[in-house]
Design a protein that fits this description.
about 180 residues; mainly alpha
């Protein structure tokens, strides 16, 4: 089972929306690895667009959340990010391994940017869901390694995010259909 599938299964186990763990990358020379982390053959790139960066732009592995500070609440951008994530499907970040820094960098950027544009109806739930997604991806999809997460709170946050996405954006996160 690929890391994407393991992360997806683990997210489902936590009742996380499929969009939450999505990541992207393209083959390219590896960035300088963080000491103690494995080298990556992939560079993290966005599969989503915002006013701060376009799809395909490289994510700074040293500061993946940097562009989130340039974003503001926007229902349109939020819905667009959800649609773009669903459209990216299962092919995103092919050949990534559980310990690949590109996976965590792209997830950190995605969660930070999504939280920055989230409308008030989804902002609170993303404060719960975002850290859970990052912990899950950081664990390599191993639920046994995820500590300090309130599963009930994550399930409720995922339910609210999914309901809001369907109502406000016309995006069904449970089916992957936009």
């Amino acid at each position: 089972m690929s890391i994407w599938n393991r992360v997806r299964v683990a997210c489902a186990a936590l009742a996380l929306a499929a969009t939450a763990a999505a990541c992207s990358g393209t083959p390219a020379p590896a960035p300088t690895p963080v000491p103690g982390s494995p080298a990556s053959a992939l560079v993290a790139v966005r599969w989503w667009s915002t006013t701060a960066a376009q799809a395909g732009s490289t994510i700074d592995p040293k500061d993946p959340e940097a562009l989130a500070g340039k974003l503001h609440t926007s229902q349109t951008q939020y819905c667009d990010m959800l649609r773009q994530t669903i459209s990216a499907g299962r092919s995103i970040l092919p050949n990534v391994t559980a310990n690949d820094p590109a996976l965590l960098a792209s997830t950190r950027a995605f969660v930070a940017e999504l939280r920055a544009v989230a409308p008030p109806t989804a902002a609170g739930p993303w404060r719960v869901l975002g850290p859970a997604v990052l912990a899950l991806v950081g664990s390599g999809g191993d639920l046994a390694k995820v500590k300090g997460i309130d599963a009930a709170a994550v399930q409720e946050a995922a339910r609210v995010v999914a309901a809001d996405a369907k109502r406000s954006c016309g995006v069904d996160l449970s089916s992957g259909a936009a």
